[in-house]
TrEMBL record:
SUPFAM superfamilies: Porins. It holds the Pfam family Porin_O_P. It comes from Lysobacter gummosus. This is OprO/OprP family phosphate-selective porin. Keywords: Signal. Residues 1-23 form the signal peptide. The keyword Glycosyltransferase does not apply. InterPro entries: Porin_dom_sf (IPR023614), Porin_O/P (IPR010870).
Length: 411
């Protein structure tokens, strides 16, 4: 949806009045709780070297405007946080751009240990990727990976228990629907474990694994992926939406399980990161189960020499060593997702199983963190997509290149 003028004005006003040298604004102490205010405003621009699809259209198939670009506010996140009383922490976040709640929960830390706690409310699930669990303002690339956007379970309302220390952790969560109405739902559970055998300044080695299992509430599931551009309306890679065909997942699935594996290596100003996910969908009406998977591998170099930190099994991005010059990063990522689990039936326009398509992409990116509150990103993405077409009775392709830019202000 488009952000209203009033909501946008409120978000921008909050951004402008925030002190430029702090990551958050301390408000007051209320009920022995130290309350602070944080925000994140992002604006994106995409320029497409289109192939066969008009990715600049606002609505697929109904607004083919011929534009080869999109520009829009991506996020307008407003977050209240509280510390206390005692070992209690709480957070209430809202994205005014997407009209949805973000983290909205209460946490109790045992013995004031940040890695041993119980949490109730809406939070990012352990069945999400390490990339999703990391801070959004420090994304390495404009678009998150295809497995993060398409396969993992992100925020849901539930109860979570975490036990660990600085270099290891185990998390178990039981969850239901998303807090915002008419969003994701279906009860389930998630698990995540991680271990960093090396965890010191400028030298980190991390391994992790996750598992999630959830009900589709008899509503089915639709798996699809954008061409590495978050605000694009059209998805070429798609398992389908028709409820009348056996060759789609929608309205013909029961439970969904996802297994994830992750790895991270930091050496000085260099970071190598990769994740893999495989999804299994139990199908109804005697249909064969569906399986898909995907992974990404990325490398980042802090040209200005800074290194990364490590917190709760995720990398943390430092402030610039020289705020006036900023922190410069150069990154490269390979990403792939495969939603094919079937084969065409020769001589017909039907398939056995589901053929949602496959997408491979390369992303080259440059990031500039200036001072404490500004970030500028520039990405060039090369995308290769292929999907079997029952109309053509052959594979169809769409291979756009995308120039992406993001301006970000956060406090």
């Amino acid at each position: 949806m488009k952000l209203s003028r009033n909501t946008l004005a409120v978000a921008l006003l909050a951004a402008l009045v925030a002190p430029a040298a702090h990551a958050e604004v301390a408000l007051d102490v209320i009920g022995n709780s130290e309350v602070s205010f944080e925000g994140l405003v992002q604006a994106d621009f995409y320029k497409f070297d289109t192939d066969t699809i008009d990715y600049g259209a606002d609505v697929p198939g109904t607004d083919v405007d011929g534009k080869e670009y999109l520009n829009e506010l991506r996020r307008a996140e407003l977050v209240l946080k509280g510390k206390g009383p005692g070992n209690i922490e709480w957070v209430l976040g809202y994205d005014a751009k997407d009209d949805k709640f973000l983290d909205a929960n209460i946490k109790y830390k045992f013995g004031n240990n940040a890695n041993h706690f119980i949490q109730v409310g809406q939070y990012k699930q352990p069945g999400a990727t390490m990339e999703e669990l990391s801070s959004t303002k420090n994304n390495d690339f404009v678009s998150k990976s295809s497995i993060t956007n398409s396969l993992g379970t992100a925020r849901r309302v539930g109860v979570q228990y975490n036990y660990g220390d600085n270099n290891w952790g185990l998390t178990a969560s039981y969850f239901g629907r998303e807090l915002t109405r008419n969003r994701e739902h279906g009860a389930g559970y998630g698990l995540r474990g991680y271990y960093a055998p090396i965890n010191e300044a400028g030298n980190i080695l991390h391994f992790g694994a996750s598992y999630s299992n959830k009900d589709t509430d008899a509503d089915g599931i639709r798996l699809r992926a954008r061409p590495m551009a978050d605000m694009v309306a059209t998805r070429f890679i798609d398992t389908g939406s028709s409820a009348t065909s056996a060759n789609t997942l929608n309205n013909r699935s029961d439970r969904v399980s996802v297994i994830g594996a992750e790895g991270l290596w930091v050496k000085g100003p260099f970071k190598l990161q990769g994740e893999y996910m495989t999804i299994d969908v139990k199908r109804l009406n005697g249909l064969d189960d569906f399986s898909g998977d995907g992974f990404y591998v990325s490398g980042l170099w802090n040209i200005s020499g800074e290194t990364w930190g490590y917190k709760a099994g995720t990398p943390t991005t430092p402030l610039p060593s020289d705020p006036s010059k900023g922190l410069w990063q150069l990154g490269l990522r390979y990403d792939t997702i495969d939603l094919n689990d079937g084969s065409p039936i020769a001589g017909t326009n039907r398939v056995n199983g589901v053929l949602g398509g496959k997408m491979d992409s390369w992303t080259l990116g440059v990031n500039w963190y200036w001072r404490s509150n500004f970030k500028f990103m520039l990405n060039y993405v090369m995308v290769d997509q292929e999907k079997y077409s029952t109309t053509l009775r052959a594979k169809a392709e769409d291979n756009p290149n995308v120039l992406e830019a993001r301006m970000q202000f956060y406090w």
